[in-house]
């Protein structure tokens, strides 16, 4: 590594990254209001406006003082467990996970302290304060995140990033980071050896890899992201880390593995060498049993709650042309087993027979067939497709165990016949009524992108991911102009 790096390191001045300071201060204030409200409601519900005291072996303590201490302890717990780490905000589940961890640890400490010090906590007070506080904290974080995501999609409040690596890996990083603006990475340029042109995937090449430190200081970047292909070597990467010390620039190393979620990755240092363990996907076990049970319970509840909507849609379809209300289509499920998938009929009765003459007008890519202005769609069908109401009868498939609430898109047999070997991994789990494909653009997605999202879900499924997808699905359905349904 050139000695100029050491010289640049001596000249580098620490530059505090403060663009998130105001946002994080607001998040702290929202959290403070959330836990204060939860504790206040718990005290009023349990004791009303009368003064009550907590009995202990050291004497009585007024519950108002207990509430103040609990609020302060909650805020300290959030701070200590990195709930305000700016690197975690805006994207992924880690921000929510840290908030839950902080609350869980505080609850555990309170329980242990109550047992050890013989504190006679009112159960009603505790059982209201902690669940309510947790819900309010998560809702507050969600609201703050929506604002931050909006800003980042406009190009604001994002890390300024400089990439390092060979041409192909840098191009992959540019595409991956550009795909998720919520994560807050704004790529300014790349240092690439033998680039062959002035740009890589639309990002300007600023010089060879050996110029990375100089370019990072010139551009005042926040992050230097080094791909696994970079020619810096172990010594060069270590010296780059030393050179960035005190400059407030994060060094991020992107491994050569793609589309693997955090829960499957374990980093274990051995003699200074960080070994990355990648666990195999889990397609069985207690989590899968719990998912199957929850699917069926939720399907029953949704059928009961949505029964007026189901009845109204059925009547509207029947009144329009007198044809059948439901449409049953052959689809392929887990391990290649075929099943009949139910939908509300959104097309004319002879839609299947008209398909051959429309194939040449296909707007989709790959094995998919989609038409933005399909002449077979009825007026009622256009409306129920816009709000995804045509999918609701699939709750019957969920009850029968043929589908899940969340999973890959259910494919047609003719699509499966064209699958490559890697694409067939979509069939390792049950197809879903919704999934990453639906909340990411649905029919507007290219075939390759739809496959990538489905395979990501198959490889990285977790209960938390399912909850997030269901939550996002509700938002997407209520904003039909952005859901890609047609």
From TrEMBL:
Q: How does it sit in the membrane?
A: Multi-pass membrane protein
Protein family according to the UniProt entry: Belongs to the bacterial sugar transferase family.
Q: What's the name of the protein?
A: Polyprenyl glycosylphosphotransferase
Xref: PANTHER family = COLANIC BIOSYNTHESIS UDP-GLUCOSE LIPID CARRIER TRANSFERASE, SLL5057 PROTEIN
Q: Start and end of every Bacterial sugar transferase domain?
A: 291-478
- Origin superkingdom: Bacteria
Biological source species: Ornithinimicrobium pekingense
Transmembrane regions: 27-49, 61-81, 102-119, 125-144, 297-319
Q: Which NCBIfam families does the entry link to?
A: EPS_sugtrans
Keywords from the UniProt entry: Membrane, Transferase, Transmembrane, Transmembrane helix
- Cell compartments where the protein resides: Membrane
UniProt entry tagged with the keyword Glycoprotein: no
């Amino acid at each position: 590594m050139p000695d100029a790096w050491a010289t640049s390191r001596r000249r580098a001045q620490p530059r505090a990254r403060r663009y998130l300071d105001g946002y994080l201060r607001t998040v702290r204030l929202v959290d403070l209001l959330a836990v204060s409200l939860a504790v206040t409601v718990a005290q009023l519900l349990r004791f009303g406006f009368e003064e009550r005291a907590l009995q202990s072996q050291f004497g009585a303590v007024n519950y108002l003082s207990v509430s103040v201490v609990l609020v302060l302890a909650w805020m300290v717990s959030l701070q200590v467990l990195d709930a305000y780490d700016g690197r975690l905000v805006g994207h992924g589940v880690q921000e929510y996970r840290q908030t839950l961890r902080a609350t869980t640890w505080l609850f555990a400490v309170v329980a242990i302290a109550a047992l050890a010090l013989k504190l006679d906590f009112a159960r009603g007070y505790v059982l209201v304060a902690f669940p309510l506080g947790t819900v309010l904290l998560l809702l507050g974080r969600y609201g703050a995140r929506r604002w931050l995501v909006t800003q980042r999609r406009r190009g604001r409040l994002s890390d300024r990033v400089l990439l390092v690596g060979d041409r192909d890996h840098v191009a992959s990083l540019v595409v991956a980071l550009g795909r998720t603006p919520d994560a807050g990475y704004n790529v300014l340029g790349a240092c690439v050896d033998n680039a062959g042109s002035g740009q890589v995937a639309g990002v300007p090449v600023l010089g060879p890899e050996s110029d990375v430190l100089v370019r990072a200081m010139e551009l005042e970047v926040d992050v230097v992201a080094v791909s696994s292909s970079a020619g810096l070597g172990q010594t060069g990467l270590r010296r780059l880390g030393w050179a960035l010390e005190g400059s407030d620039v994060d060094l991020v190393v992107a491994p050569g593995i793609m589309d693997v979620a955090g829960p499957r990755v374990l980093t274990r240092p051995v003699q200074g060498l960080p070994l990355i363990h990648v666990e195999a996907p889990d397609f069985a076990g207690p989590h899968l049993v719990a998912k199957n049970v929850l699917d069926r319970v939720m399907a029953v509840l949704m059928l009961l709650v949505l029964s007026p909507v189901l009845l109204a849609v059925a009547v509207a379809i029947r009144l329009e042309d007198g044809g059948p209300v439901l449409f049953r289509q052959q689809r392929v499920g887990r391990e290649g087993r075929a099943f009949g998938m139910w939908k509300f009929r959104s097309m004319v009765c002879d839609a299947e027979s008209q398909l051959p003459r429309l194939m040449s007008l296909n707007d989709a890519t790959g094995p998919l067939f989609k038409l933005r202005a399909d002449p077979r769609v009825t007026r009622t069908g256009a409306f129920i497709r816009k709000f995804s109401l045509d999918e609701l009868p699939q709750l019957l498939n969920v009850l029968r165990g043929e589908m899940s609430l969340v999973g890959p898109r259910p494919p047609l047999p003719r699509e499966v016949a064209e699958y490559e070997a890697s694409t067939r991994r979509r069939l390792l789990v049950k197809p879903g009524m919704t999934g990453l494909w639906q909340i990411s653009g649905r029919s507007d997605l290219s075939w390759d992108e739809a496959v990538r999202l489905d395979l990501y879900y198959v490889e990285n499924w977790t209960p938390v991911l399912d909850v997030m997808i269901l939550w996002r699905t509700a938002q997407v359905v209520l904003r039909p102009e952005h859901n890609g349904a047609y």
